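To the wet lab folks,

You asked to see what we're planning to order before we commit. Fair enough. Below is the target structure as tokens, and below that is the sequence we designed to fit it. If anything looks off to you, flag it before the synthesis order goes out.
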């Protein structure tokens, strides 16, 4: 599983998916760094979760010896200024005329990957790991596998590098994502994700559910809760059989 000659840079927001991806990278690579983005997100509380989650991950197995530097990049002044969305302003979450939820921030992942690649270039890291997924997702076009493959080609051509964009969650639903986390770090990692990560679009840390903190009604909470329930049902079924 380990790739001793490769280092990885993980797009790490402080949410469930990116935490699972960070755990995945720590299980695969001996040198792992993280990068987080402040883009004027309404749920900026996720950024406050990053340090405690990194601390918790460092205590699992030998991951503390593999976890390297963390990098913060502030693009709120650019991305947030391009147009309001429900993730960057106090706007009710709804569907748009294009059939996409207004939580879609146009160009967000494209910019994230571009900044991450520029950072990886300077840090000597070849692997860039992101939590993009087109199985259980909100329909965002910049989360699709075709988009990621196209970005990998563009980044490699534009920077004359051989970056590999890793998306370990691309074909997993949320139940499988919980299962992956358990397989990587057992109950310790699952508990860390429940208690310390943040996914809720509204930034709600006041309400604690069995799957973690959140409003319980936004699309992100609904996906997380549904995945948890399906995963727990499978666990209970296996225990009874």
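Sequence we intend to order:
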């Amino acid at each position: 599983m380990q790739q001793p000659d490769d280092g990885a840079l993980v797009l790490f927001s402080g949410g469930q998916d990116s935490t699972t991806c960070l755990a995945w990278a720590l299980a695969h690579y001996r040198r792992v760094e993280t990068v987080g983005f402040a883009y004027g997100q309404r749920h900026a509380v996720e950024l406050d979760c990053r340090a405690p989650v990194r601390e918790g991950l460092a205590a699992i197995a030998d991951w503390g010896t593999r976890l390297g530097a963390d990098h913060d990049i502030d693009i709120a002044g650019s991305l947030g200024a391009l147009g309001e969305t429900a993730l960057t302003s106090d706007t009710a979450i709804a569907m748009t005329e294009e059939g996409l939820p207004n939580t879609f921030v146009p160009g967000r992942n494209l910019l994230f990957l571009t900044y991450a690649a520029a950072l990886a270039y300077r840090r000597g890291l070849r692997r860039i790991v992101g939590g993009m997924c087109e199985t259980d997702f909100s329909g965002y076009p910049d989360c699709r596998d075709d988009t990621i493959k196209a970005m990998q080609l563009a980044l490699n051509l534009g920077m004359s590098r051989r970056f590999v964009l890793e998306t370990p969650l691309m074909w997993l639903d949320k139940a499988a994502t919980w299962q992956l986390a358990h397989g990587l770090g057992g109950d310790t990692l699952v508990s860390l994700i429940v208690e310390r990560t943040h996914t809720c679009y509204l930034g709600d840390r006041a309400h604690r559910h069995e799957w973690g903190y959140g409003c319980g009604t936004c699309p992100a909470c609904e996906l997380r809760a549904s995945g948890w329930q399906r995963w727990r049902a499978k666990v209970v079924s296996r225990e009874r059989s």
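Structural context that might help your review: The chain has one domain: 3-198. The mean pLDDT is 88.

Thanks,
Computational group
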